[in-house]
Amino acid sequence: MRKHFVPLSCGIVLVITTFTLSFIPTSAFAEETPKMGFYASLGLDLSEDSFDDYPDDPDFETGIGFALTVGYRFHPNIAAEGTCEYLNRVNSNDFDPDLEASILSFHGNVKGYLTTTRFQPFVLLGAGVTRFRFEQSGSKRDDDVGITGHFGGGFDYYIAPRISVGLTAAYVATSGKIKDLDYSTFTLGAQYRF
């Protein structure tokens, strides 16, 4: 039950917040918000596994880390960005000894914004490289790297013309040496538009 709590609760929060913020008047504020240009964001990142690589379906803890994004909005509704995500403590007690895991990923994304008002829902699609690091006490560290797809959606909400807060939910599809280690991320962050 615990394994599905985080994605379910984050999904519910995303839907409720999107619905609520869509009713806030935004037309006057939208004129002050930059339509294009560079931006940077930093966020708290949570992950939930969909690992199919383990036959006994062991439980892995919700990973926690950060996401750093730098991007350029070259059209009022389209941006290109690069994201670095680090997730730690994706651990499992169902192994003997316990298995400790971390995830480091670099993704390039294209982001499509549905509005240019204060509340800006978006969809994103990207690809990149992800490294999984697995360690068990008394055994050597195992690093596996593979190509990953990155897709999802979320929203930015502007609290000032150049500053926004937002929530992003994404699914990371794995391949190569990390095939069947798909996972989801939920990022709560703040963004500054230059």
Q: Key features?
A:
mainly beta; elongated; disordered N terminus; 8 strands; eight-stranded antiparallel barrel; 11% helix; 194 residues
Helix-strand topology string: HHEEEEEEEE
How many β-strand stretches? 8
Estimated share of beta-strand residues: over 45%
The global form is elongated
Output the structural class: mainly beta
Output the strand order for the largest sheet. Answer: 1-2-3-4-5-6-7-8
Helix content: 10-25%
Largest sheet composition = 8 strands, antiparallel, barrel
End-to-end separation in angstroms reads 43 Å
Topology summary:
Blueprint: H1 5-21, H2 27-30, E1 37-49, E2 63-75, E3 78-88, E4 99-113, E5 119-136, E6 142-160, E7 163-174, E8 183-193
Description:
The protein is mainly beta. The chain is elongated, with a radius of gyration of 18 Å. The protein has an eight-stranded antiparallel barrel with strand order 1-2-3-4-5-6-7-8. Residues 1-5 have low confidence and may be disordered. The chain has two helices and eight strands. It starts with a helix and ends with a strand.
Task: Explain briefly what this protein structure is.
This protein is mainly beta. It has two helices and eight strands.
